[in-house]
Design goal:
Aspartate Aminotransferase, domain 1, binds pyridoxal-5'-phosphate, about 15% strand, Aspartate Aminotransferase, domain 2, alpha/beta, about 450 residues
Length: about 450
């Protein structure tokens, strides 16, 4: 089944599309252990196109300076580029980018965006203990008797941020269960989300099963009871057209490095009226208008209030370029390509002894496919594949509860991106088919 890159004659439109995309990724041109690199670990971090890689030296060679401070020309130029990046990220997900209405906050990653939010809610809850009557208290405070709802499919960055918030405020943590094949049971929204629910934090796409959550009934029910909805868009934005206005989520978080951008940058989206009321979570330089020794500081408006300290300027600019680059490929074209690759990846289920942890059809899912090879530890699977130049992820993918649901502690995960070709998947399937014969001497 294996066809090497040299032998493949990409005549179809789809093959030509992926070939032209792959050519933009220098890292994919190399060999690993004597084999062409077959990178199937995009859910952990995506590779970067030349345009994004070039942005970094370009920034440091031409306009490097702190943003929103200083009057010199470099500071002006870097500030303009930084704010242009914010508009590009906003455009990618249809958030508001107008001056004074910005809805994108730059963070260090999705984890820090989620922690920012949970910490802010915690700070608002402290306000409530002092009965300040603040807008933050009215909108975000939690206490005993309140509920926070997550799901069994959450990445630990959602689970632990909001579990900790529950612990600090005395609220109760509840969760959506998942179906046998790991889909979040959205149709139980009416019973899981109650009038006591204040926050629902849920993944839009699972980083283990690849399943796309049917978030509509969850968001509708949450809003019915006055709860806020936080979406984890980490595995959604890189693969699907996302419109935060159409979704009507209140907050969302995702990372730059999974959407073909640099590491060290992430995004918190918030409806502007909510960001206006949200208290800061980190304190220091840049986020304050007036500071005194003997009275509380007056903080800046969003998004700056949430960006204390020296901002990750080069990273933000690189992420803005990644967003623009994705849009130039076409978000629909990306989704269509990945749908085709997902169908190919699911053929793994046909390899004897392989069990896919997630939905077996390509409907409402992306090309992130976790699997178990019966009788072979994921670590061995990972090493066996690596020896053939195939990079997958092994472990629990920072999502232990859903692994427990599947009765395993760890799994293997192959995950696709814009550059993944059918040949890449064929190579994976051929190699996976060799694993049990190699380790166990059995084909069944
Ligand atoms: C679904 C999901 N949420 C959150 C995260 C955390 O993202 P980061 O590590 O970039 O902060 C990840 C990363 O693997 C993820 O897949």
């Amino acid at each position: 089944m294996t066809v090497s890159n040299q032998q493949a004659s990409p005549h179809t439109q789809a093959d030509q599309w992926v070939s032209s995309v792959r050519a933009q990724f220098p890292i994919l041109q190399q060999k690993i252990h004597g084999h062409a690199l077959d990178y199937l670990d995009t859910a952990a971090t995506s590779q970067k196109p030349k345009r994004v890689i070039a942005a970094d030296p370009e920034f440091y060679s031409t306009i490097n300076a702190g943003v929103h401070r200083g009057t010199h020309e470099l500071a002006v130029r870097s500030t303009l580029a930084f704010e242009q990046a914010r508009r590009r990220i906003a455009h990618l997900v249809n958030a508001d980018a107008r001056e004074g209405h910005e809805e994108i906050v730059f963070t260090q990653g999705a984890t820090s965006a989620l922690n920012l939010l949970a910490t802010s809610f915690g700070n608002a809850s402290l306000d409530a203990q002092h009965h300040t009557g603040s807008e933050a208290e009215k909108r975000f405070a939690l206490g005993p008797g309140d509920e926070i709802v997550v799901s069994m499919a959450e990445h630990h960055s959602v689970l632990l941020s909001f579990q900790e918030l529950a612990r600090r405020t005395g609220a109760t943590l509840k969760w959506f269960n998942v179906s046998k094949d790991g889909r979040i049971l959205s149709d139980t929204a009416d019973s899981v989300i109650t009038p006591h629910t204040k926050v629902v934090a849920i993944t839009d796409v699972s980083n283990v099963t690849g399943a796309i959550t049917n978030v509509k009934p969850i968001i509708t029910r949450a809003h019915e009871v006055g709860a806020l909805v936080v979406l984890d868009l980490c595995q959604a934005v890189p693969h699907l057209p996302i419109d935060v206005k159409a979704l009507d989520c209140d907050f969302a978080a995702w990372s730059g490095h999974k959407m073909y951008g640099p590491t060290g940058i992430g995004f918190l989206y918030g409806k502007r009226e909510l960001l206006d009321a949200l208290p800061p979570a980190q304190f220091g330089g840049e986020m304050v208008n007036l500071a005194w020794l003997d009275q509380p500081a007056q903080y800046m408006d969003p998004p700056y209030r949430f960006e204390a300290g020296t901002q990750p300027v080069a990273q933000a600019i690189g992420a803005g370029i990644a967003a623009q680059w994705m849009e130039s490929l076409g978000l629909k074209a990306i989704a269509e390509h990945e749908h085709q690759i997902t169908t190919e990846l699911l053929k793994l289920a046909g390899v004897p002894g392989v069990r896919i942890l997630g939905p077996l059809d390509a409907v409402q899912r992306v090309g992130t496919v976790s699997f178990e090879v019966d009788g072979v530890h994921p670590h061995d699977v990972g090493q066996f594949l690596d020896a053939q130049g195939i990079a997958i992820r092994t472990g629990h993918h920072c999502a232990q509860p859903i692994h427990r649901h599947f009765g395993v502690f760890a799994s293997n995960r192959a995950s696709a991106g814009v550059y993944t070709s059918v040949d890449d998947v064929d190579r994976l399937i051929d190699a996976v088919a060799q694993i049990r014969p190699y380790f166990l001497g059995t084909r069944n």
